[in-house]
Design goal:
The chain is mainly α and 66 residues long. The protein has a domain of 42 residues. It has three helices and no strands. Helix 2 crosses helix 3. It is globular.
């Protein structure tokens, strides 16, 4: 069995592909991940949410080309 790896999406992206990659990793629609992300950013404050997104853009690698 192959292990799942988290990558930023090259295709399903709005800004950096983080939500698209999370959606693919969790087998959930990326739109749902984006809505959850926006709600969390609103509830926890804009600065921490944006910093968390930027950190994920740096840490999570871009998915390999097909």
């Amino acid at each position: 069995m192959e292990t799942k790896k988290l990558y930023r999406s090259r295709i399903d992206r709005m800004v950096g592909g983080v939500c698209g990659g999370l959606g693919k990793y969790l087998s959930v629609d990326a739109t749902l991940i984006r809505l959850i992300a926006v709600l969390l950013i609103i509830l926890t404050g804009i600065i921490p949410g944006v910093i968390a997104y930027l950190v994920m853009m740096v840490i999570v690698p871009l998915e390999p080309e097909a």
